[in-house]
Amino acid sequence: MILRVRKSSLSGTIAVPGSKSHTIRGVVAALQSSGKCILRAPLDSEDTRSALEAAKLFGADVAEFPDRWEIGGMNGKLSAPARVVNMNNSGTGLRMLTSLAAMQDFPVTFDGDDSLRTRLMTGLFGALEELGAKIQSSNGHCPFTVCGPLTGGKAKVDGKSSQFLTSLLFALPAAKADSTLVLDYLNEQPYAEISARWLTELGIKFSKQPDNLKWDIPGNQKFPAFDRVIPADFSTACFALAAGALCGGKVDILNLDFNDAQGDKKVFDFYAQMGCEIIREAGKCTVSGGKNLHGVTLDLNSTPDALPVISATAALIPGETRLLNVAQARNKETDRIAAMTEELRKMGADIDELSDGMIIRGGSLHAAKVDSRNDHRIAMALAIAGMCLDGETVIDHAEGIPVSYPGFVTDFKALGADFVLE
Asked: Hey, which residues are catalytic here?
């Protein structure tokens, strides 16, 4: 699929859809619960639907409505799936459901698309094996088979991805024995805080160090039924933020809750550092374009998903921008550091690629034919850049966009974006 983008001037109001991170956590928590759970305003995207379809495959009673999903709790006791659990492109769903599957006394085989088959799982496998699970995998990636049941105990967790820790946090409260998880370091700290808030609000007991490097989790706990509104997704809102800053008059972004634990809310502070005018009000955030933005130095360790859109922004504004301490961005749907370096260079960008980031000297870009590698965030970031350039930017493999933001093209066209999806 190709997305054709021409220079655009944006203004108006955009409502940000629900958080992918929260929605998938809600599906997994529902499977652990003892009754009917309601997720209101969930994100209905390819990634979240992969998690929901997996829940059905595990035997959950699921009812879908335009404004909510209702999921019958299974008390953590899943049914053996009749086939391989295909998580498509959902790394979060894959990792979270792997630990839940490891709580069962039957084998479960997981697989995914070509991109998911590149996502490392060894950091989670090692911890699961320490806790009593058995893993069959030829290369530490999908496809693999996991079989439990987990018994609890002590395990060391790889902090390269926060998803490894989150996966265990949603499974181990139901183990027969108490558990202790230790880490040497942890990337993407805010995602661990999202998980901690979920557990706290559900009444699950645990204790942790302030640096999130040690967690003690009592066993034999029960997850209650719940009724929860899914917060809006700051990772998705970053694209409206960037578009408003670069090619907007005034863009009002609705539904954002800056009290939420999502790490990507920090990206709004990053754009303010660049010189963007941002006004926060109750239920609305207004971004004004036409300002003199400038390069900055940013630590993206807590906000790796924002690297594509920030790098595209940096390539368009004056001065040098340094994006640092974000090596984990190489282990997403694609190697996003390498991909954004290569694609922005096709548009004329001056970039030094670092092992853990990028140095970008902003200036004059030109329209070009680029390849998003079927990575949703790269496709949307390149579209933001294309709206600022004369001529036509052609983005190949744009079919990945619905992974996190099915309404991207429609929503941005309503703001004035000149998009043609073929």
From this structure: 305
Burial of 231 (0-12, 13-18, 19+ CB in 10 A): buried
Write the pLDDT tens digit of every residue in 309-349. 999 999 999 999 999 999 999 999 999 999 999 999 999 99
Ramachandran assignment for 358, one of left (phi > 0), alpha (psi -120 to 50 degrees), beta (any other): beta
- Could you tell me if residue 356 is left (phi over 0), alpha (psi between -120 and 50 degrees) or otherwise beta? alpha
The DSSP result for 282-333, as a single string, is: TTEEEEE-S------EEE-TT-GGGHHHHHHHHHHSSSEEEEES-GGGGGSS
Q: At residue 180, what is the residue type?
A: T
Structure tokens given for 340: 């954004």
Whether the Cβ atoms of residue 242 and residue 264 lie closer than 8 Å to each other: no
Contact 326, 357 (CB under 8 A): yes
The rounded distance, in Å, linking the Cα atoms of 163 and 177 is: 22
Look-up of token digits 């996966």: 167
Q: Calculate helix-pair angle for 234-247, 376-386, nearest 10 degrees.
A: 10
Cβ-based burial of 220 (10 A; exposed 0-12, middle 13-18, buried ≥19): exposed
Tokens of 69: 């999903």
Best CA proximity match to 39, nearest among 56, 58, 63, 15: 63
Per DSSP, the three-state class of 108 is: strand
Digit-coded pLDDT (tens) for 29-50:
999 999 999 999 999 999 999 9
Burial class (CB in 10 A: 0-12, 13-18, 19+), 277: middle
Angle, helices 46-57 vs 91-101, to 10°: value is: 20
CA distances from 300 to 267, 337, 368, 383, 405 (A): 9, 12, 27, 21, 22
